[in-house]
Amino acid sequence: MRVSYNWLKEYIDLTISAAELADRLTMAGIEVDSLENFRDDLPRVVVGRIDTVEPLAGSDKLTLVGVDAGGPLLKVVCGAPNVAPGQLVPVALPGAVLPGGRRIEKVRIFGVESEGMLCSAAELDLELPDAEAGLLILEGTIAPGTPVAPLLGFDDPILTLALTPNRADCLGMLGVAYEVAALTGGVMHLPPGEPPEGEEPVESAAAVTVRDPDLCPRFTARVIRDVTVKSSPLWMQLRLLKAGIRPINNIVDVTNYVMWEYGQPLHAYDYRLVAGGEIIVRRAAAGERLVTLDGVERILDENVLVIADHSGPIGLAGVMGGENTEIKPDTTAVLLEAARFHPVSIRRTARRYSLPSEASQRFERGINPAGTLAAQNRAAYLISRLAGGVVLSGVLDFNPDPPLPRRIVVRPHRINEILGVKIAESEVSAILERLGCTVEPGGGRTLEVTVPLRRGDLNIEEDVVEEVARIYGYENIPMTLPRGELLECRESPAQRLLALAHETLTGCGFFEVISYSFINPDDLDRLGLPADDPLRRVIPIQNPLNEDQAIMRSTLLPGLLKVIAHNFNYRETNQLLYEIGAVFIPRALPLDELPDEKLRLALAVTGSAPDPHWLTPSQQADFYLVKGALEALCERFRLGSLEYIPGGPPFLHPSRCAVIRLDGAAAGFLGELHPDAAEAWGFRQPVTVAEIDLELLLARANVVPRVVPLARYPAALRDLAILAPVELPHGVLRQAISEAGGALLERISLFDLYTGEQVPAGKRSLAFSIALRRPGGTLTEAEVNNVMERIEGALVRLGAEIRRNQ
């Protein structure tokens, strides 16, 4: 928010400098981001009065102008088409340096010495309408020789406020003036705002219909006839430039000027082009089109609030008007709008069409409900002054449910407790009254504070405490050290386990990903989930920021797959990623209670494991790499072995996936992404994913250190080779060996796996190394043979065949 210091002084008596004002505002929580003059000074650029204008001999376009610049009459060669005797114009004298570094000196043109230059607005770095078309004509009675820079307000200090989202009331000059009045005790001066009205009632010329009052709780309209569209007076154009707004014409400039004054956006329509003379506020129909003022055709849908007439949409409500009702040079009647729209509706429309504006910014943050009609009247008053015309009698005002000022009960002793300072109740009341509040005694040593409607950020007692602190002065509150016990902060067991999980996965070469909890419904479609899949039971967001964040995630995979797709675009083909985060499972839809939040671990790999040693071949990032990472995690958690059963969700490759179980309980899934799902995500190489119930692992983890004495007796080592059906999982074989080996079994290792011509079709050869040991003594040969016989018998019962040396 840009605030002109000189403009601000029209609304409040200021006796402090701009620098001191900036300090006061910053200390009160209204941060002043910068303080600088509107423009740099222009030495030797003064006001000149044109006395004579004569053709320049030898030129068809140039003239020789006699200029009174406060001294002897100067002769200046000029090419501006609008030069005429009696005008007051800026004159750059020899030695002047104009914006951009152009230096003015005496020069000879067609044999005549030119003693300076008459300046246009563009040459003074002023972006006024037709700034380059001719000389800048100055207004009023000004003595020749007067410096131009102070006259045009170049030395006006501009304060740029970095407002927090809750201080929407300061998005207008009057709002800032109220704040300054509270800080300085200055007296406010409100600008004139009641327009002179004609006899014709506005109801005879126009009508307003609001079909969606939830999105438009108030809409006001006036009609002004017989206006003349032209440039605004220079004083208004300069003020708009100081606000950072480009002047256009007197009608549009008034709407922007009043928006900057009151913080209330307005819009002016060419009344002749409003079909039927009726304004209709409604949701757009799907497929409707509107060409906005920037010349772009917008395709609308039912989520967009529009201003319409009998022919269709004529504006995006609160964002931008339509080209079909634009104010033009031949406009003679204006329909003036000042309304209040729902912030979420405006935010959604502005972001959807990439149309952020000063108007939408104010509607998004919430405007002053009490300022709508005042701004409407002020704009009509200024248009009647600057454009002529007749303001029709009355205002069309749709306002079915006017908001009432909030009443907050405040305890003065509580203010002192929170701030750690003693402020008298009378001073608290005085501070709140300076802020525009009404303060009345309440029951039980309390105060009833009625908050002005412009302060939408004051809702509870603590908000009022903060206001008292701001105006009292944070610098006046003594520093007080907190008292209390210094408690040692320790990690909880769950936090220690999560840290261990991160350490284990990163140690396996994985990189952590943190994605949004909101996803796009299309992400589930790209996974190829059927309509009745449990993962499709998702929670919709009532006010999503955009379509990509419309539902709460029921699985972590979309976030990981989006990261993989993003990295593929940057030619990163080798990726090992994981994410630990919550998924949201509704108990019923629509929600009637909070959903379950389940902690999940998801992994996704593709390509090769990173940074292989140059002497060793790179490891493929596939099913077995993910399986190894999960088993490493289980080993760190001191869990039993995971069981992998063929099968899995429909988005996994049917022959390269498994359901994961832990001690008989379902724990998750692992597998290569189905080719159809991979194609839908745009992947050109295999991607393997897994998702596991991390809460299950954490609940069964046992990370208490165990101390095992060194073995005093030797182990008996045996190798066992078998032929097993290819469909018989390794995990089932391993589990059978473990159960049959009993307490004497110390270790099982698979050291060979073979399929090929040397084994029968449908079979594979597996070789295990088995270590047997008794802690309290040496095993006998008979004991070892007995254990091995039990193991072989268990494997044969599963359908395996024992391979023996011939």
Description:
This protein has 806 residues and is of the alpha+beta class. The protein folds into 6 domains: 2-38 and 156-184, 2-Layer Sandwich (Phenylalanyl-tRNA Synthetase, Chain B, domain 1); 45-151, Nucleic acid-binding proteins (OB fold (Dihydrolipoamide Acetyltransferase, E2P)), CATH 2.40.50.140; 197-398, Phenylalanyl-tRNA Synthetase, Chain B, domain 3 (3-Layer(bba) Sandwich); 407-476, 2-Layer Sandwich (Phenylalanyl-tRNA Synthetase, Chain B, domain 1); 493-700, Bira Bifunctional Protein, Domain 2 (BirA Bifunctional Protein, domain 2, 2-Layer Sandwich), CATH 3.30.930.10; 716-803, Alpha-Beta Plaits (2-Layer Sandwich), CATH 3.30.70.380. Helix content is 26%, strand content 28%. The protein has 20 helices and 42 strands. The strands form 11 sheets. The protein has a 7-stranded mixed β-sheet, sandwiched between helices. The longest helix has 17 residues, at 781-797. The N and C termini lie far apart (92 Å).
Layout of strands and helices, then pairs:
Elements: E1 2-4, H1 5-8, H2 18-27, E2 31-37, E3 45-55, E4 63-68, E5 74-78, E6 88-92, E7 97-98, E8 102-103, E9 107-109, E10 112-114, E11 117-118, H3 148-151, E12 157-162, H4 173-184, E13 197-201, E14 207-210, E15 218-225, H5 234-243, H6 250-262, E16 266-270, E17 278-283, E18 289-291, E19 297-299, E20 305-309, E21 312-316, E22 320-321, E23 334-340, H7 343-352, H8 358-365, H9 372-386, E24 390-393, E25 396-398, E26 407-410, H10 412-419, H11 425-434, E27 438-441, E28 447-450, H12 461-472, H13 493-507, E29 511-512, E30 518-519, H14 521-526, E31 539-540, E32 551-552, H15 557-569, E33 575-585, E34 596-606, H16 623-636, E35 642-646, E36 652-662, E37 665-673, H17 675-680, E38 687-693, H18 694-700, E39 716-725, H19 730-741, E40 745-754, E41 763-772, H20 781-797, E42 801-803
Parallel strand pairs: 13-24, 14-17, 29-33
Antiparallel strand pairs: 1-12, 2-12, 3-4, 3-6, 4-5, 6-11, 7-8, 9-10, 15-23, 15-24, 15-25, 16-23, 17-20, 18-19, 20-21, 21-22, 26-28, 27-28, 30-32, 31-32, 33-34, 34-38, 35-36, 36-37, 37-38, 39-41, 39-42, 40-41
